[in-house]
Amino acid sequence: MLFRIYFLCLLLAQFVSAQTICSKTSPCAQGCCNKFGNCGFGPDYCGTNCISDCSRKSECNPGFGAKWAKSDKCPLNVCCSKHGYCGTTTDFCGNKRVHRKTCPKDNGTPRVVGYFEGWARDRPCNVFWPEQIPDGLYTHINFAFATIDPATFKVGPSSETDIGLIRRLMTLKKRDPKLKVYVAIGGWSFNDPGPTYHTFSDLAASVPR
């Protein structure tokens, strides 16, 4: 009889141990650990029964009280679950439906940006010139690349032949007045060891220039 009682007690102890997911030495990944070895938020876990990480607060307040939550409501008006987490699925909202905001079809300004490489003229084949850019396709065209004089910080063309290409790009505005043409500065070799290696950092550090 005593053996049976001992055996039942041993099984019960193993069951309780299996149900315990946290302790003073094994904290919760999220939430507070109460004396029963369970993780969660609110007074049942972070209050007088808490044994570990008792200062943690839930994302939102499902009814715990402001003391136990980081915020009373979830951002963007999403749902607060009974456990104090924010989300949009049924696990968080139950039967409540979250209305997602939509933008009107005529909202915003579409932009199509083209990237014209100055070295396209030097290709061994398929040489590409500014006049080959289709009218009305791009809203913006960036010419690559201009450079910066490391001594004066003056912006200029990477080569003299680029000046003509930039002018030809600007001429496209006669065919498409809404087109905007910009010049990109630098390039992948601009920051390589050489005269312009520190130009960007020097420019940022020089307030008067």
From TrEMBL:
<dbReference type="InterPro" id="IPR001223">
    <property type="entry name" value="Glyco_hydro18_cat"/>
</dbReference>
<keyword id="KW-1015">Disulfide bond</keyword>
<dbReference type="InterPro" id="IPR017853">
    <property type="entry name" value="GH"/>
</dbReference>
<feature type="domain" description="Chitin-binding type-1">
    <location>
        <begin position="57"/>
        <end position="105"/>
    </location>
</feature>
<dbReference type="InterPro" id="IPR050314">
    <property type="entry name" value="Glycosyl_Hydrlase_18"/>
</dbReference>
<protein>
    <submittedName>
        <fullName>Uncharacterized protein</fullName>
    </submittedName>
</protein>
<keyword id="KW-0732">Signal</keyword>
<dbReference type="InterPro" id="IPR036861">
    <property type="entry name" value="Endochitinase-like_sf"/>
</dbReference>
<dbReference type="Pfam" id="PF00704">
    <property type="entry name" value="Glyco_hydro_18"/>
</dbReference>
<dbReference type="Pfam" id="PF00187">
    <property type="entry name" value="Chitin_bind_1"/>
</dbReference>
<feature type="domain" description="GH18">
    <location>
        <begin position="110"/>
        <end position="209"/>
    </location>
</feature>
<feature type="signal peptide">
    <location>
        <begin position="1"/>
        <end position="18"/>
    </location>
</feature>
<keyword id="KW-0147">Chitin-binding</keyword>
<feature type="disulfide bond">
    <location>
        <begin position="79"/>
        <end position="93"/>
    </location>
</feature>
<feature type="disulfide bond">
    <location>
        <begin position="74"/>
        <end position="86"/>
    </location>
</feature>
<dbReference type="InterPro" id="IPR001002">
    <property type="entry name" value="Chitin-bd_1"/>
</dbReference>
<dbReference type="GO" id="GO:0005975">
    <property type="term" value="P:carbohydrate metabolic process"/>
</dbReference>
<dbReference type="GO" id="GO:0008061">
    <property type="term" value="F:chitin binding"/>
</dbReference>
<dbReference type="InterPro" id="IPR018371">
    <property type="entry name" value="Chitin-binding_1_CS"/>
</dbReference>
